[in-house]
Amino acid sequence: MDLLLSESSISKIYFVGRSKPKSNSTKIVFIPLSELSTKNEMNDVQLDAAFCCLGTTIKNAGSKEKFEAVDLGLVVEFAKASKSAQKFLVVSSLGANSKSSVFYNAVKGRMEERVQSMGFKSSLIFRPSILTGPRKEFRLGEKIGIVVMSIFSPLMLGPMKKFRPIAAENVAKAMLNGWKSDVKGPVIIEGDEILRLAKK
Q: Domain of 194: which CATH number?
């Protein structure tokens, strides 16, 4: 949101979420997530781009079914509401594969397939590894994973480089630059490709 607000070329941002953003910018039009499937202001305009960062964890959702309702159901619902967008950009996860035996990865894979089948002129799917940066809640397992992965990061070379932890801020920068670029989709962007796009 901060990156989008800093762009002078952007005159309006439709923000879809559970609660209003902290910013008081007059550029922002808030649309409650609960009203996404109903008639709203976003339905009547031609969108330049739609950025989707919706996601939760099975622990926070409370069950596999509720997790799927967010990471697949709500993402697809948002994509439908953003069907006028010239470019659709969404955060997925490294390892996403609809045929995976890992439930999390399988849900992310199905989400990617649904988005790619929706007819956007261009869709960019970002598959980061473990995300670093401030979080509202403390996740012990994730903290341990970040520490371990950071220690071994220098040893992750070649195809393994995509497993290195990545700052959430860099994913956001890559999404913004992906929108500005002439990259056409559907395309999947992973690991170092995200970092390269973030630095453009």
A: 3.40.50.720
